[in-house]
Write a structure and sequence with these properties.
heterodimer, A: mainly alpha, 10 helices, B: two-stranded antiparallel ribbon, 3 strands
Chain lengths: ~190, ~120
């Protein structure tokens, strides 16, 4: 086999035994977690199309390391969020540098929901968007990882590269902002 | 409020998550991206060497054009003339004082201040 074939991680993976099983396990990981990763990236990047691109890139990078990820499945989710955050930082930098304008593409679809939950969901999204806009990028990411994606403080500290104490304080402050925003919203709604 | 008291906050996020738009899954695109050869990480010295080469080529071409062209571009002289002729990273000359004193090391060795030269005729 030529070295060119081995240059592709996919081709290299294909010649190994048990690859189909690992691939289908990773496909399951993608189907199961892509919506969460996409929501996280949408909150960080503020753009659906860019978030879709970043989600695909996140899983492409994760696929290159799928053996390590699947070897420790309990750590797979924090790992994916770690990759997603790095991708989002790179995309933010690229967007700032090139002032890239993403064209709206058919990359998302709406969820079927009852009119009541649709209404509540929209109101919640409005409050959350207002609160997130007041937070720094780091604090926003930590709040989302904790409250929206249910990661432990320890996992957040590891993937953000901060101490556990810092993560707890930052999330506490971010939650105060969220509650203030919610209170403002309630007063405005009366 | 304690760190664990986040039921209300979680509920807001859960309400939103229930109606959040879902991405269109495209597994083939993930595979295509993953099998693309990655851009090689270059060592910092490669960038330094490239920068030095570009500076050298740029200066050389500027020098050639200066020799052949009588026109002087605005600001061009700034590259050639900065008033002082200085060198960095040069060992401090041995300084002896009487009585012996501690002499601060010099960062720059300025050989000659050309601004004090008499103007050329």
């Amino acid at each position: 086999m030529s070295p060119q074939v081995f240059a592709s991680p996919l081709a290299l993976a294909a010649v190994r035994e048990g690859d189909d099983e690992e691939r289908s396990a990773f496909t399951f990981l993608y189907e199961h977690h892509a919506p969460r990763i996409h929501r996280f990236l949408r909150d960080l990047l503020g753009d659906g199309a860019l978030a879709w691109d970043a989600t695909q890139e996140t899983f492409a990078r994760a696929f290159r390391l799928h053996r390590e990820i699947l070897a420790d499945r309990a750590r797979a989710v924090p790992w994916l969020f770690g990759i997603a955050r790095n991708v989002s930082l790179e995309m933010r930098k690229a967007r700032a540098r090139c002032d890239r304008v993403m064209t709206a593409r058919d990359v998302e679809h709406a969820v079927d929901a009852s009119p009541e939950s649709e209404l509540l969901g929209r109101e919640a999204a409005r409050v959350i968007a207002r609160a997130l806009a007041k937070l720094s990028e780091d604090r926003r990411a930590m709040l989302l990882l904790r409250l929206d994606h249910d990661l432990s403080y320890e996992d957040i500290a590891t993937l953000m590269g901060f101490s556990l104490a810092k993560v707890k304080v930052e999330i506490h402050r971010a939650r105060e902002v969220l509650r203030e925003t919610l209170e403002e919203y309630r007063r405005g709604a009366r | 409020m304690t760190f664990a008291d986040d039921a209300l906050d979680r509920e807001i996020f859960a309400l939103r998550a229930a109606v959040a738009p879902r991405p269109r899954l495209d597994w083939d695109d993930v595979i295509a991206r993953a099998s693309r050869p990655r851009r090689r990480e270059r060592a910092p010295w490669v960038y330094a060497a490239a920068c030095a080469a570009a500076s050298f080529v740029g200066l050389a071409s500027l020098h050639d054009s200066k020799a052949t062209s009588a026109a002087v571009l605005p600001g061009e002289s700034m590259s050639y003339f900065d008033g002082l002729s200085c060198r960095e990273g040069v060992a401090d000359p041995a300084v002896t004082t009487e009585p012996p004193m501690c002499v601060a090391p010099m960062k720059l060795v300025c050989e000659r201040d050309v601004t004090s030269d008499p103007p050329a005729p």
